[in-house]
Design a protein that fits this description.
By secondary structure, this protein is mainly beta. It is about 5% helix and about 55% strand.
């Protein structure tokens, strides 16, 4: 009965939205854009009165260059220039720009990507994220390789809600599309140097241009280094530092009219010291008290480290046949990781961790997108293949209480093939219906062995003998969208989408039977209504969306006693869960040069039925799902002398409390917090020179950025990591 009631509420919301649209109707009838605007550029062509309005944002979320106001999706787009001016260097700094998006990082290897309360913090070899990350159309499957330096960007697009009928990989939370700047016929070169707090050093550069007729190339590189903002008192070493270098090369060829091929190569290397965690709950049975300084701790593992190497190669071919554009993307990605960690965050050798992972991913995507002309229908059809192979070796070293060390070796393979597509019919000049579907067949394999290494040097003991198992999943996920273009400036839409995330295996099973037992697939039915309005001669833009998610077998990451010396965090299923919410994005230009932005997200997430280890968690809030988040910003941009331009921006970010575990542990929560960010950019010499200063978390607010309860019951310890303290910096850039 609750589901029926929720559906009725969604229908009621849809009726209200459509009524609102009808009342606002009366302007010009919507027509398809005739010109193809390069994605990410601002378009202000048209009447003179529009020159003072908000710049048009063009996105390619549906594989066509479209005004974001005419896309019936909850989508946000942030330009690379805006991210650079704000001092944002990776995805974790994107949250303030997108309602409903929560991004944080426990380390370079463990980003926490959540959209509307949906995500995963599992970084194990068998894990897969609920939020898809795409780099120039290539799916980045491993969470451990999704956090990299954002440089030389055109834009980042964030799509909220299940994605499956448009994208190669199905994801229940949403998709983050990272679009780099492409090489072209004009010669371009740029260099940027920066310095900031904690001895932060940055160096970025690129060169791009034509190598010959219809042959273009680009080479770009980046280095980022920084001392840590935390300190190990036992060694004096600073932790949570940065030491990363990235290189990207692109070669674009246009052999014939309507045909282009792009070869992309990328490599990144990270060599920071270990991450820092503090004890936020428990006392190790009275042996340890947390430090009064949250950025200072004492550890027993000197020389702990993180090593990560990522390499990628892709070839993207596009052929405009006239009636449709055929795209073929072949890609390979390789991630190699080795890190050590003081898992208990105390000066006692309770739990030390040594982990090695290697993952190799091949993807192949074929996509056919119809041209939009005078026809009343349009369509997208595609096929996707993924093969992911990984292996890991995890060693838990447990000397303090004389426990046997635990060694787990695992190898995995995932094979997935899918067909997807959408068909849109323009019923009238204002009304359009879209029907989409996706069929997925997926097979997962796991070979795992767990052994004990006794402290007395005795031979290894099999805890879980070598077990090889496999399982397959099949799923059909439909989608229905109704959109109504009341006027050229008002779009209303409603959608129902089924989403699917396959099940799989955990790589720390308790025994051979558990090793062969898979957790269940995750299914979601997402209802959404939205309204996009541009008003007052393009001086005001308001986009809003209301949604309801009905989950079955939601995959949850939680500590489980596997019968060993300590529990491990594994994926289990919550029988029922729901998320409902409201999002509003407002942009206004009340006077020339002034831009006001307000983003608001309201989330109500609950486990409706979830019995975990005989504990009833029904009614608890989903992790990383704050009830209210707000970002308010004020920006002024204008000329101050000749061709010298100045841009000033201030930003306030607020979040209500969020929990880090499904148990809603009060020791592992953020509490309410607000952050103040600011930036100023001076453009000189016609834009060839730029000087930027920025500050983030200017009030130096301390709050928890990550919380772990893996060893809470066994060793009376809960650990967490504070989010970054106040940071500031200056950059000087030159561009030709």
């Amino acid at each position: 009965m609750k589901n029926v009631s929720n559906i009725r509420r969604i229908r009621g919301s849809l009726l209200v939205s459509m009524t609102t649209v009808a009342l606002l109707a009366g302007g010009r009838v919507y027509a398809q854009d005739a010109t193809d605007v390069p994605a990410g550029t601002a378009q202000t062509a048209g009447a003179e009165s529009h020159s003072e309005g908000i710049d048009e944002i063009v996105v390619t979320a549906q594989y066509r260059s479209e005004n974001i106001q005419r896309v019936p999706l909850a989508i946000s787009s942030v330009s690379g220039d805006d991210l650079a001016a704000a001092g944002v260097s990776d995805l974790t700094g994107l949250s303030a720009n997108v309602p409903g998006l929560y991004l944080s990082s426990y380390s370079t290897l463990s980003p926490q990507l959540f959209i509307r309360g949906v995500g995963s913090n599992d970084d194990g070899i068998t894990s897969e994220g609920a939020v898809g990350v795409y780099l120039d159309g290539v799916y980045v499957g491993r969470a451990s390789s999704a956090l990299f330096d954002l440089f030389d960007l055109d834009r980042v697009e964030v799509l909220r809600g299940p994605q499956g009928t448009l994208y190669g990989r199905n994801t229940n939370g949403g998709a983050i599309k990272i679009v780099t700047a492409q090489p072209g016929p004009n010669f371009n070169a740029a260099v940027e140097v920066g310095y900031g707090s904690f001895d932060q050093r940055t160096l970025r550069g690129l060169v791009s241009g034509a190598l010959g007729d219809n042959v273009y190339a680009k080479l770009s590189g980046s280095y980022r280094g920084r001392d840590g903002w935390t300190r190990d008192t036992a060694t004096g070493v600073r932790l949570n530092d940065e030491d990363s270098a990235s290189l990207r090369g692109q070669l674009r060829i246009e052999p014939a009219s309507g045909v282009d091929a792009t070869l992309s190569l990328d490599y990144s290397r990270d060599r920071p010291t270990s991450t820092f965690k503090e004890v936020v709950g428990g006392t190790l049975f009275g042996l340890y008290q947390e430090s009064p300084d949250p950025f200072v701790g004492s550890y027993d593992l000197p020389g702990a480290f993180i090593r990560r190497d990522i390499a990628g190669a892709s070839v993207a071919i596009n052929w405009d046949t006239g009636p449709a554009v055929l795209s073929v993307i072949s890609a390979y990605r390789d991630t190699d990781i080795h890190y050590t960690e003081d898992y208990d965050s105390t000066p006692f050798p309770v739990v030390q961790l040594d982990t090695r992972q290697r993952a190799k991913q091949f993807t192949q995507e074929l996509r056919l997108v119809s041209e939009e002309g005078e026809s009343s229908f349009s369509w997208i059809a595609g096929a996707f293949y993924l093969r992911d192979r990984g292996r890991s070796l995890d060693q838990f070293i447990l000397p303090f209480f004389g426990l046997d060390d635990e060694i787990t070796s695992a190898s995995t393979q995932t094979s997935s093939i899918a067909a997807f597509g959408e068909f849109s019919l323009r019923v009238t000049d204002r009304l359009q219906l879209t029907v989409g579907a996706r069929y997925t067949h997926e097979r997962k394999q796991l070979a795992v062995q767990r052994t004990y290494r006794p402290q007395d040097g005795s031979p290894l003991i099999d805890f879980v003998p070598l077990t090889d198992t496999a399982i397959s999943f099949d799923n059909f996920s439909p989608r229905l969208v109704v959109e109504y273009q009341a006027t050229e400036d008002v779009l209303g839409y409603a959608s129902v989408t089924r989403g699917f995330k396959s099940g799989g295996f955990n790589n720390f099973p308790a025994n051979a039977i558990a090793a062969a037992t898979a957790f269940s697939p995750e299914n979601i039915t997402a209802y959404e209504v939205g309204l996009k309005v541009t008003a007052f001669d393009r001086r005001l833009r308001v986009n809003s969306a209301a949604f309801y998610y009905d989950y079955s077998d939601l995959q949850v990451f939680a500590p489980i006693d596997t019968g060993g010396a300590l529990p491990v965090i594994q994926i289990t299923n919550a029988a029922k869960a729901s998320v409902k919410g409201l999002e509003i994005e407002l942009t206004a230009t009340p006077v020339h040069g002034v831009t006001v932005e307000l983003n608001y997200a309201h989330l109500l997430s609950r486990y409706r039925r979830f019995l975990f280890n005989a504990v009833d968690l029904a009614g608890n809030t989903l992790p990383r799902a704050p009830r209210d988040t707000v970002t308010a910003s004020l920006e002024w941009a204008g000329s101050i002398a000749g061709d010298t331009q100045l841009r000033l921006r201030g930003e306030y970010v607020y979040s209500s409390n969020l929990f880090f575990t499904p148990f809603n542990d009060p020791d592992l929560q953020t509490g309410r917090f607000g952050l103040l960010n600011a930036s100023a950019t001076l453009a000189l010499g016609g834009g060839h020179w730029t000087l930027s200063v920025y500050g983030r978390n200017l009030t130096n607010k301390h709050y928890l950025g990550h919380g772990i309860d893996a060893i809470a019951n066994f060793f009376d310890l809960k650990t967490g990591q504070l989010a970054a303290p106040r940071q500031y910096g200056i950059t000087l850039g030159w561009r030709y």
